[in-house]
Design the sequence.
């Protein structure tokens, strides 16, 4: 929420909230996969569904070239939008494939999702 303070552009704020939704779901799943919290199949499934819903929105949230001084989105998103959308689609596909049956399966699936997230952040997110 602090990162969103001062965002004036509503489209950018919506994007930031969508990314936060993905991060929150990943945190919930990651804590179970690493044993920081007990594995709970119902919680894992709910977090997976939240991740899928948020990831499905990524191309729409970034379709319009919108800027705000608080945004971490790089202009390359719109210069390479087809590639950006392809990377986002890989994240969505990995989220759909995520096995929430147990912590070990969850950890393996999160590794794949983490790779897609990192690929997108490397090319399309400003470094802080």
Sequence:
């Amino acid at each position: 929420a602090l990162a969103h303070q001062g965002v004036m552009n509503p489209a950018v704020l919506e994007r930031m909230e969508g990314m936060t939704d993905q991060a929150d779901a990943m945190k919930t799943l990651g804590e179970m996969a690493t044993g920081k919290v007990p594995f709970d199949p119902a919680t894992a499934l709910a977090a997976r569904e939240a991740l899928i819903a948020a990831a499905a929105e990524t191309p729409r949230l970034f379709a319009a070239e919108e800027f705000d001084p608080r945004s971490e989105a790089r202009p390359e998103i719109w210069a390479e939008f087809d590639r950006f959308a392809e990377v986002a689609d890989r994240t969505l596909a990995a989220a759909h494939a995520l096995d929430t049956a147990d912590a070990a399966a969850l950890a393996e699936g999160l590794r794949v999702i983490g790779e897609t997230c990192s690929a997108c952040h490397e090319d399309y997110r400003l470094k802080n």
Q: What stands out?
A: The helical segments are 10-33, 41-62, 76-79, 81-97, 103-124. The chain has a mean pLDDT of 94. The first helix runs from residue 10 to 33.
